[in-house]
Amino acid sequence: MRSDPAGARATSRDVARAAGVSQATVSLVLGEKWHGRVSEPTAEAVRAAAEQLGYRPNLAARSLRLGRTRTALLVVPALTSEFFARVYAGAARVAADNGFGVVLYPSPEGVGPAQDPFTSARAALDGVIASSMAADALAALQDGGLPLVMLDSDPADSAAAATVNPEVADGMRQIAGHLLSLGHRRLVHVAAAVDSWTFRERARSLAEAVRGVPGAVVHTEPTALEVEAARAAAERALSRPGPRPTALVCDDDLLAAGACKAARRLGLRVPEDVSVTGFDDLTLATALEPELTTVRLSAEQVGAGGMHALLTALEGRPPTSATIPVTLFPRASTAAPPPA
Amino acid sequence: MRSDPAGARATSRDVARAAGVSQATVSLVLGEKWHGRVSEPTAEAVRAAAEQLGYRPNLAARSLRLGRTRTALLVVPALTSEFFARVYAGAARVAADNGFGVVLYPSPEGVGPAQDPFTSARAALDGVIASSMAADALAALQDGGLPLVMLDSDPADSAAAATVNPEVADGMRQIAGHLLSLGHRRLVHVAAAVDSWTFRERARSLAEAVRGVPGAVVHTEPTALEVEAARAAAERALSRPGPRPTALVCDDDLLAAGACKAARRLGLRVPEDVSVTGFDDLTLATALEPELTTVRLSAEQVGAGGMHALLTALEGRPPTSATIPVTLFPRASTAAPPPA
DNA sequence: CGGAGGCCGTTATACGTAAAACCCGAGCAG
DNA sequence: CTGCTCGGGTTTTACGTATAACGGCCTCCG
């Protein structure tokens, strides 16, 4: 219900005039804290006037007045990834439950000059949640002087901030265990060539797991985070001289899709000739054929945990450090290696 | 570079004090419009003080003062879809080129009470871009009194607003033409059971195209927008009594993935026994095997077009109505039907 | 020598809201 | 009768910024 000639939004003063009260009364009534301060008939008149004028509070003015905004900024490296969309969803849910909002800032990859997240966010902020950021990007965020929560990032990058990290090392250990116990010994790590904590951790954990098994080796094949790049990388790895690897351990489900394509192009069947594993358990994992053996890493839980951590930080409590468990989902893309 | 004891952010007045000038001068200098009003040494002193104090303008105060915010709200039905992430990317790019920002509002599907996008957005807004919204949701957005641009929505829902629509009807016509010319006559439309303009348009266009060819029929099988639901739907369609359909026309790539799984579960090969087509050309389309024949609908262009339309609207010019062309990408998931 | 402009700032103000401080009349206890 | 409380409001103020309006001082020209 709006009414005014478009262009001029109604202010609380307009509502006050229409209801025959002062602006302060309008603020009290609509702020829901008028009990015992305003009589019911007056309150009702104010609400009616507000409704009739289509009044919406000016958020800028409110933020300015209150000094806090009940708004968090979520910084993600890329939005096109389902993973970060899910992180957002988790954070937004917890935020909504606590009267907060979440504004998204996809840290631009080359879009103009490196912009300042705080001003580009276009909203006044109470705190920042940064997901999967490299150390330098984090440093910039810390200069904001706002409470900071790091998700999926190296705890060493900022000892002071709260962190929420999925147990990726454990996940990779489970994948390695799964493959090794199936009898695989020659593994390829189709590794995301991205400088971030998660991927470093995945590499470290895989190497460690393999090191514990005599005769097992892992060759690392780096790739960009795209299906085609992963296909090329996997094809390289499968075509190298010497005995063929029997398992492709991919840093995420998208790369695993590329690996599957590589196998097929070389005339190899998955999983009979070569096993493939993913990571994250996105929609893609079960959309592919065969369905991917992967590790489910609940991005929603990461986002939700991040928002919780931020809320406790905003209450002045000391930074927390949470951890999100992961689960192996053995599916159709892995099997025992072919007989030598 | 921040310095103050955390908690108290530096204001322009603090900078002024540090630089030995008035607050107005700080505003002039940092506003880049000081030429001929402030001497170079003074300006330099201000900039130095600002840097040293880690000054960042208070966005709420600035918005309040200026009355406009150079910020647009993008309302999308769901963020987990790569499609909308791309719409955002396109809009954000154009926005950045024009000194604007974009704040995202994923219209929640059941998250608490139907929230008001304008207040939940947490930012003061200049305009709204709504993507793929149903009529009732659009009506709510129009009450905001802000310039509105509709993407991928029924132009009839609001004659007044600007629209940017991909030529989905043309896309579906191309898909139908492709299949019909390959010789297919018994089609199934694996149709998204979502009340929105695009999907209505796709159904309409497909029906129309088939109607023009004697002996061609299309059976509609509705499904939720999920891989598993689509698989079930496609399995139903392929198992119906009577001659088996030879092509599954899916409303988007995700549904096509489900259709492929259905075919495989029934022992049918794609494309030899049954052809499958997608829509949108997301990453998924080329991650699958076989790669999907699909229609590329540039979500980036839709987003970019939406932002352009909003910018012209903000200049007071009359609402525009743009259209985004689509292109058929014939790939490996379609072939001639098997001989009867 | 006086006034008209530049030049380089400063002072003052408004944006819309929330809330602290204040105010007034009525009821009520002492 | 006086002074206090209390309900039901109003007046006032502050948040931080951008900018319009104002004004000293120096120079230059008539």
Q: Any key phrases for this structure?
A:
434 Repressor (Amino-terminal Domain), DNA-binding, 3 domains, 4-stranded parallel sheet, homodimer, disordered N terminus, Rossmann fold, alpha/beta, 13 helices
Structural overview:
The structure is a homodimer of 340-residue chains. Chain A is an alpha/beta fold and 340 residues long. The first copy, chain A, has three domains: 46 residues, 434 Repressor (Amino-terminal Domain) (Orthogonal Bundle), CATH 1.10.260; 121 residues, Rossmann fold; 130 residues, Response regulator (Rossmann fold, 3-Layer(aba) Sandwich). Helix content of chain A is 42%, strand content 17%. The first copy, chain A, has 13 helices and twelve strands. In chain A, the strands form three sheets. In chain A, strands 2-1-3-4-5-11 form a six-stranded parallel β-sheet, with helices on both faces. A four-stranded parallel β-sheet of chain A has the order 7-6-8-9, with helices on both faces. In chain A, helix 9 links the parallel strand 6 and strand 7. Chain A is elongated. Chain A binds a DNA duplex (30 and 30 nucleotides) through helix 2 and helix 4.
N to C succession of SSEs of chain A: HHHHEHEHEHEEHEHEHEHEHEHEE
Cα end-to-end separation of chain A: 75 Å
Strand content of chain A: 15-25%
Which structural class do you get from the secondary structure elements of chain A? Answer: alpha/beta
Structural domains of chain A: how many: 3
CATH topology of the largest domain in chain A: Rossmann fold
CATH top level class name of the largest domain in chain A: Alpha Beta
Rg calc of chain A? 26 Å
Largest sheet: spatial strand order of chain A = 2-1-3-4-5-11
Unreliable segments of 5+ consecutive residues of chain A: 1-6
CATH architecture of the largest domain in chain A: 3-Layer(aba) Sandwich
Mean pLDDT score of chain A: 91
